[in-house]
Each structure stands twice: as C-alpha cells, then as structure tokens.
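Researcher: We're reviewing a set of sequences before deciding which ones to prioritize for further study. For each one, I'd like a predicted 3D structure that I can look through quickly. This is Large ribosomal subunit protein bL20. If possible, include the structure in token form so it fits the rest of the review sheet.
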Amino acid sequence: MTRVKRGTISNKRRRNVLAKVKGYRFGRSTKEREAKVAIVKAGVHAFVARRDKKADFRGLWQTRISASSTANGISYSKLMGALKKKNNLINRKMLAEIAQSAPDTFARIITSTQG
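Model: Here's the predicted structure for Large ribosomal subunit protein bL20, in token form for your review sheet.
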C-alpha cells in the first residue's frame, strides 16, 4: 500500500483559528488553544457591545435633544412630556436628527407642543 500522510485537515483547522486571531498579542496569536479561548471571549464581548451600542446611541440622542431644547427655552423632560401629551409620534432618533440638521424646524416642533 502507498503511504498516507495525515494532518492536512487539522493543519487547515489550526490555520483558520490562527487567522481569526491575527493581530492579537502574545500566545493568543500563536497558540491554538489560547487562540480558541480568545475567539470565544471576543464573540462574547461583541454580543454585549451590540446591545450596549443601542443604549449609547439613545443617550447621544437625548443629549442632542436636551441641548437644542434648552437653547429654545424648555427642558428635555418637559419637551418629552409635552410631546407625549400631544400624542406626537416622533422618536428620539428623528428628533435628534432634526435638532442637529434643521434647528428652525425643531423650534417649530417645540412651539407646536407648547401651544
């Protein structure tokens, strides 16, 4: 029988694992076992960060709305309360965009809630 050399699949697997951790420091970039742990941890952090990103953006929108509403003479909480009373369905993302790109339109929204 002819000789069969083994290890091509395991070498391919090892190459793929190490390719995912390219740029990591120390043993995490060179040792397969440490690299696998690093990949799992990176996935966990990515999962958590995707959820945190939503909260971060909501905070950014609140800050932008607050800054613009304070410049127009009303606090953020009073503005949001007035919008809710008027049953205005503009969300915070859109309000922040309007406040940043079209301040005159934002001022009209504020006057419509107060009137």
